[in-house]
Amino acid sequence: MKPSKLRNRLCAIAPVLFLIATTPSIGHASFESGWAAYSRQNFSEALNEWIPLAQQGDVRAQSNLGLMYANGQGVTQDYREAIKWFLLAASKGFADAQYNLGLMSDNGRGVVQDFAQAAKWYRLAADQSHLKAQFNLALLYANGQGVPQSYEEAVKLSRFAADQGFATAQFNLGLLYDKGQGVEQDDQEAVRWYRVAASQGDASAQANLGIMYASGKGVSQDFVEAVKWFQRSAEQGNVGAQFNLGMTFHQGKGVSRDYAEAIKWYRLAASQGDDKARLNLGVMYDRGLGVGSSSVAAYALYSLLTSTASSLESMALNYRNKLVLKMSAQELGAAQELGKEMIKPNNFLTALDNYLPKRLGR
């Protein structure tokens, strides 16, 4: 029974989903007072400063008032009211408000989801060198949402934002080089951009840089360096890095073999729904590696994969069929109950820990 191999799937990237506030520059004292209050989370005071300014046509105050309605800060959350204020500022060419409107259309907040409308507003902001707008517009081009699909346009826009130091765009540019989308496939260039983003703490870039070192793509194979980047990413909650870090400890690549440490990282990845981590965790309980042997836990973990249309279903079913031959009816009943508890939302580790004694071995 062999563990699943290191995950070599590239990390996917999602749009930047955060509405942004406009920070003060040299300008109206009331706006700065409002920003100081907002920064202290004194939202009522911020509203008192910004509402009069917004009514007088101050685009910064209008945009931030929209943000507060969108987030329900000091007011009842109201996406339609947010859009009203964003539109007032965006119609005057204010890039932050244009970006925020794009995001509302992109995610269907206060309006019907409309990628073409999102692209329109992102483009207006991107033309003013708005980094997040450039990046989100790049994703729309990469996915062909609201615009004709074009990896070349995605590369161009990602590069604009990446050259200005936006880590998520740097990661995305690395991903495009890694996959050869819109550019000639180039492992070394992918590594370069992953490294730049990883050095800024981007967890996805750190995870993919670890994969490049583990596989020897674009760099000399170096499991010690791979472990370093997996660790940094895993500590930020990146599920792929958590699985890969578990694998390095499981196999003793780049680190001394340590089944207990492998279990630790498999558990974290498995709790986020990672199928490979759940399979390997089942193997660990099946064989008693790093934990006390438990046929009940192993059976429950294998069953999770056979009930969710996992790509690993056949492997999990094979392991489970071998395991069931040595289980009692009582153990089978306990395993089935454990599986029901583990599949409940946010209950994976709680269910497992409530059943199992906390015994670690080597």
Q: How would you characterize the overall build of this protein?
A:
This protein is mainly α and 362 residues long. Among the domains are: 17-22 and 30-148, Tetratricopeptide repeat domain (Serine Threonine Protein Phosphatase 5, Tetratricopeptide repeat, Alpha Horseshoe), CATH 1.25.40.10; 269-355, no CATH class. Helices cover 65% and strands 0% of the residues. It has helices spanning 29-39, 43-55, 59-71, 79-90, 95-107, 115-126, 131-143, 151-163, 167-179, 187-198, 203-215, 223-234, 239-251, 259-271, 275-287, 295-306, 313-324, 329-342, 348-355. It starts with 28 loop residues before the first helix and ends in a 7-residue tail after the last helix.
Task: Please give the structural blueprint.
Blueprint: H1 29-39, H2 43-55, H3 59-71, H4 79-90, H5 95-107, H6 115-126, H7 131-143, H8 151-163, H9 167-179, H10 187-198, H11 203-215, H12 223-234, H13 239-251, H14 259-271, H15 275-287, H16 295-306, H17 313-324, H18 329-342, H19 348-355
Key terms:
disordered C terminus, Serine Threonine Protein Phosphatase 5, Tetratricopeptide repeat, globular, 19 helices, 65% helix, 362 residues, mainly alpha
CATH superfamily of the domain at 17-22 and 30-148: Tetratricopeptide repeat domain
Strand content: under 5%
Computed Rg: 25 Å
Q: What are the segments in which pLDDT stays under 50 over at least 5 consecutive residues? A: 4-17, 358-362
Give the structural class. Answer: mainly alpha
So what's the CATH class of the domain at 17-22 and 30-148? Mainly Alpha
- What is the 3D shape? globular
Number of DSSP-assigned strands = 0
Enter the CATH topology name of the domain at 17-22 and 30-148: Serine Threonine Protein Phosphatase 5, Tetratricopeptide repeat
Average pLDDT confidence is 90
- Cα(first) to Cα(last) distance is 18 Å
Main sheet: strands, sense, barrel: none
Helix count equals 19
What helical percentage do the residues reach?
55-70%
Order of helices and strands: HHHHHHHHHHHHHHHHHHH
- Quickly give the CATH architecture of the domain at 17-22 and 30-148: Alpha Horseshoe
